[in-house]
Fold these 2 entries.
Entry 1:
Amino acid sequence: MKCPFCGHGETQVVETRESDDGDLVRRRRRCGGCEQRFTTYERAEVAMPSVVKKDGSRTDFDRSKLQASMRLALRKRPVGIEQVEAALDRIERTLLSSGIKEMPTAKLGELVMRELKNLDKVAYVRFASVYRSFEDVDEFSRLIQDI
Ligand SMILES: [Zn+2]
């Protein structure tokens, strides 16, 4: 790591500390040239798969967008934001651990539906009815019977 003050090529790590949740490492470094100290942060780089839309275009995974649609489905339902966040965490972990590079929106929708099904049945049906854009009544009633 080059010194940000003088550009010297050699710096020494004088202290290493992990954040409380363990996902960030902070290192204090000292420049071998000018002796100035600075801090570097180290975080694991994890890539979410990109989301492939119906028309084939790709977009970045957007947690806030997903959160917004879940909250819409959960409107006026007795489910707290912490539960939504926990559900989003689970979805993200699933995506990350899958190791896949691309995920169709339909698949992402299935993950959301699975979470909503556990959180709140009404929200689940609301979301599913928009997401699957039911083409026939049979499909809808099958879904209702599932619940
Ligand atoms: Zn320096």
Note: The chain has two domains: 11-42, 50-146.
Entry 2:
Amino acid sequence: MTAAESDPDRPRARTGERDRPMSDAPTPGAVPGSFAVPRRYFAGKAEWEREIESIFRHSWLFLAHESEIPEPGDYVTRLMGTDQVIVSRSESGQVQVMLNSCTHRGTLLCKADVGNASHFRCGYHGWTFANDGKLTGVPRHRELYGRDFDKAAFGLRTARSDIFHGLIFATFDADQVELREYLGDLAFYLECFLGVSAAGTDAPYGAFRFNHQGNWKLEADNFSGDGYHLRHAHRAGFDLGLMGTQAGTTEGVCIQFEHGHTLRAQRTAGTSEAVFPGYPEDRWPEIQARLSPDQVDMFSGSTVVHGIVFPNLAFIHTPRAGGFDPGDPDAAMVQFRLFNPVGPDHTDELCWLVTPADYAPEWKESAFKTMQRQHGATAFFESDDMENFRRMLQVNTGAETRDRIPANFDLAHDHAPYEPWFDGPGNVVGTDISEVNQRWFYARYLDLMED
Ligand code: FES
Ligand SMILES: [Fe+2]
């Protein structure tokens, strides 16, 4: 899919008329008129189980970047909600997403995180599956199972999968809409940085994995559009001058989309030309040619774009965040980050640097340094945020806290009419310090949980 495939008939930007109202259902302990989310959703086991059933079993879930499995036989193993899956490239080059569980008695079939295999042989009784999921070998099957045994009925359960600019998503829900429809108008904005090169995208350093002691929604909430915490939780980063252009004079918006996705974008105030800081200047004409004029307007002079693909994939683009070594080229960092809820209090995270596929190795390395220093597992942003998430978990299990002190999302309920600097889709709210995106995320979340 190319940037040019953005829907030309998309609705024009609106100015906040679809901001969610306060919760309809009375929330214990809530201030009347507040947008409040009960704390039990951040710590309860029953709520976590319901999330898996009501949200994770039905959503399109991100799993891997295509460049992690470039050759036939390449595979990685990942989580889809609570299910272990194998993401493999078959001998015919197709990407498959299959449950990593033998169809005989159910043993974990593939025990490695990454590898290359034409077949997976179960360690228990030796059933063997091809890398497209078909059952191909059953030890002594004629002798013990008889001639009528139908191997075709015992293939690995395969999910629907699809790829958007190199990003592999899957769902087990046959009734879910197609991926492109699920992403909807968010695609217009994702293409601004995923669609800059005709060569496509790359994840040159693969996936990084870490765990955090906290509820997954805190990450979704934070990445969905929390501009409010930046100068407080991350004040040290600003004081040390590590934020580059993000510390300058900016203007910003929060945008909400169908299916619960959100995005927050900032640019250098008053940008009037097509400029793409963080990208090599000799590639600017290509960027301009590949993006639509409206996308160029939106992306030009960008200082940060971040948001979520509902429910559990975050993205952040920072064009020139600083922190790289003298002599390194300016390089835009794009990180995708997945947060899998392995329990109400434990989140398994994976993150990827995603770059244009054909940019120079030095450019990719510079972007990688920025990612590791700013948003890697031990980077200053993450240290600040994870500590807050851990402290929230620490108190959210308290009985009185859980039942009487809901989380509050009232920031910037009222939005003045606003004319954005670009003509783009979604519900565009003209303030980048707002909780409108969090309200959108939690409203979608609660809709699905209470269905
Ligand atoms: S459990 Fe896999 S072959 Fe028996
Ligand atoms: Fe943060």
Note: The domain at 184-449 is CATH 3.90.380.10 (Naphthalene 1,2-dioxygenase Alpha Subunit; Chain A, domain 1).
